[in-house]
Amino acid sequence: MRPVNLRPETLRGIDEVITHYPQKRSAALPLLHLVQEDQGYISGEATEWIAKKLGLQPINIHELVTFYPMFRQKPIGRRHIRVCRTLSCAIMGGYGACAEFQKQFSTGLGGVSPDGEVTIEFVECLASCGTAPVVMIDDVLHEKVDAARARELSQGIKAESGRKAAS
Amino acid sequence: MPAPQERRIIFRHIDEAGYTPDLACYVRNGGYGVLRKAVSRKPEELVDEVKKSGLRGRGGAGFPAGMKFSFVDRKSGKPVYLIVNADESEPGTFKDRHIIHQDPHQLIEGTMIACFANRVECAYIYIRGEFPEGARILERAIAEARAANFVGPNILGSGYGCEIYVHRGAGAYICGEETGLIESLEGKRPYPRIKPPYFPAVLGLYQCPTIVNNVETLCHVKHIADMGGEAYSRIGTPNNTGTRILCVSGHVRRPGYYEFEVGRVTMGQLLNEVCGGPLPGRTFKAVIPGGSSAKVLRFGERYKGKRKVGADMVEYDWGVEDIPMDFDSLAMIGSMGGSGGVIVMDDSVSMVEALANINAFYSHESCGQCTPCREGSLWMKRITARMVRGEARPEDGALLKSVADQIAGRTICAFGEACAWPTQSFIAKFGDEFRGYAEAKKARGSGGAPELV
């Protein structure tokens, strides 16, 4: 098994969260979140590492990674754009917003944009239906995102990456 | 600003200027005073107050909360767990998000009172993965409450102790089903358990007695402990007591969350007076009254029958606008109050396309454990998607109905019903639109309706 290089604070978080449960296996989802936040995705090595940490077989972790939509087995773009696809957002124009994001970054759903900047996904209900259409960019919720607002948000992401490249 | 028809108990401080989610603000507003009093009472008394209150669960099923408490197996000697179901996922529902983000201590206080009443020493808040900020806010709030001795060992010198931990989900709707949630909390795929024997009250988390309550329900417990079950039961209407938060989304002028005494507002008052009516130049076509799995209602249809008012049976003849927004009335007319998510569609929406959108959701979220649901939800999605692609056949409505009819009642959990009801009700109410879809779509050309699939 290859070493999984987790940051010290991730390792501390892992040891802490395991104490929250009378049975270690319960810590599987929290560990997957911590590892994904640290490494960006769940590699095969990470799956084995988590299994070992919790006294489980790798399949016990792998079956979670393949079931729960938020876990991924491949890296994504620098920013993660999740557009709500479900009814309330759709009837208020969510599909238009999603198309605009794809156009802005010349990419389809699920992959990494050619510039490596973003991964765009359609996700199911984000529970903010009253301010539809909504979009999550990384951990932040954006409300009433019509095509024009999607363009603004995209330009913000591009400007920020331009600044990064310049500095 | 709350609408004049509202009565805000749970949402009293939501969107209030200067109200912050920290402990100091909560305590300044009287916070944890109810817990302080509660821990000096007998736990059974508190369970009785909840029973007397008539409180029904706000997560979807509307099950009496006091009865849920009293089902807990206390003879086994096993520890009793309480799980806060903060997996708010039913499309159209967005109330718990605001409690968690803006008033997390209200939830923690309600949870601690429910834990004390049921002698629970360890509680988990299962929060959906898409609320990362909510999870951080709750963790911060729990740490504050622990430091102030409202959570943790020997709460307020009572000798009673209880821990609360936040547990994040990872994007699966089925985790809102309580036994699926328990499996998920045990670190497994969230396949719902079969009942009997796996009633959470007896064989729940780690095969121990477990109470699973919705976020809003637990907030109500705090107010019941405060005012007493008797006084609470006078709010709302008989068998539909208290207040409840309705979330309105879709085609109205003022979508949002509103809290009313249960049954004191009709659908018409809600949509026309509180939410400002349809968008300019539009008319209401359909409304889903309790989250996307609730059966759709068609504007213009009438509901007739007899209902109990006090001791008498009286006739009723209602349009959609006349339906009181309570559990019993919505069940009586063939739908449900569910999770309180009201989704409004106007005449710009094609019902075939709306159903295709809903079917894509349920097909994505079926856990795959039971064949009728796994396959049926997929077929319903494929048929409606094919219709929208331009290959609709006149018999598709009947085909869809036959698939839906073979799911409901044949699955381990209620997801089978949840995914069948939209199709069954859309076909029953808008069958003409399904039959004429191919021509209507051709006549409409591109544009003129929101893209839904």
Explain briefly what this protein structure is.
Chain A has 167 residues and is α+β, with helices and mostly antiparallel strands.
Explained architecture:
The complex is a heterodimer of chains A (167) and B (453). Helices cover 47% and strands 11% of the residues of chain A. Chain A has 167 residues and is an alpha+beta fold. Chain A has 2 domains: 8-67, Arc Repressor Mutant, subunit A (Orthogonal Bundle); 79-166, Glutaredoxin. Chain A has a 4-stranded mixed beta sheet, with helices on one face. In chain A, α6 runs parallel beside α7 (147-166). Chain B has 453 residues and is α/β, with parallel strands linked by helices. In chain B, α14 (371-391) runs antiparallel to α15 (396-405). Chain B is globular. Chains A and B meet through α2, α4 and α5 of A and β3, β7, β13 and α13 of B.
How many strand units of chain A?
Answer: 4
What fraction of the residues of chain A are assigned to beta strands by DSSP? 5-15%
Taking the alpha carbons of the first and last residues of chain A, their distance comes to 38 Å
What's the name of the CATH homologous superfamily of the largest domain in chain A?
Glutaredoxin
Give the low-pLDDT segments of chain B.
Answer: none
Fourth CATH level, the homologous superfamily of the largest domain in chain B: NADH-ubiquinone oxidoreductase 51kDa subunit
Average pLDDT level of chain B: 96
